[in-house]
Design a protein that fits this description.
Layout lengths: L2 H21 L4 E5 L3 H13 L3 E5 L2 H10 L4 E5 L1 E2 L2 E2 H11 L4 E6 L5 H7 L3 E4 L4 H8 L13
Length: 149
């Protein structure tokens, strides 16, 4: 590969990333996890992709934020200190059926309960950048689909 080809491919990747960020600049995502480091990781990845993020560290905080804002998507941990994230996912499905919801957990066996509650996708921790972007609908791949309606 010629050096100029390498730079041309790098420029194309940057252009594609910039287009993706611009297309999702107005997307708002609620991040619900009791681990601040996980919320900060998700926030950094999604903000870099052009999203605006709000963090909540409990179900009570998530309920307050959800009630006060019109989010496009949510990333919800299943195991929270004040209850199960599946209860919040069910609430989202009842009140905003078209909102994209991604469930996350350190316990891979939580996938069935998350999907039964209405999650669009499930990701097991540790979380990877591309998996997060695909699950929330910001990248092309198998998890990219229309939100439930």
């Amino acid at each position: 590969m010629h050096r100029s080809d390498h730079f041309a491919k790098a420029d194309l990747r940057k252009d594609h990333q910039a287009q993706r960020e611009e297309a999702h600049r107005d997307m708002t995502v609620l991040l619900v996890d009791d681990e601040p480091d996980i919320c900060l990781l998700l926030k950094a990845i999604l903000e870099r992709a052009g999203c605006a993020c709000t963090m909540a560290h409990s179900l009570a905080e998530a309920d307050r934020e959800f009630t006060g804002h019109d989010f496009d998507g949510a990333v919800v941990d299943i195991d929270l200190p004040d209850g199960r994230g599946t209860a919040f996912i069910r609430k989202v499905r009842r009140q905003r059926p078209g909102m994209r919801v991604v469930a996350i957990s350190a316990i891979n066996g939580e996938s069935d309960s998350a999907m039964s509650a209405g999650a669009d996708s499930f990701l097991a921790k540790p979380l990877g950048r591309e998996a997060i972007l695909e699950a929330i609908g910001l990248a092309h791949g198998p998890a990219h689909s229309e939100p439930r309606s």
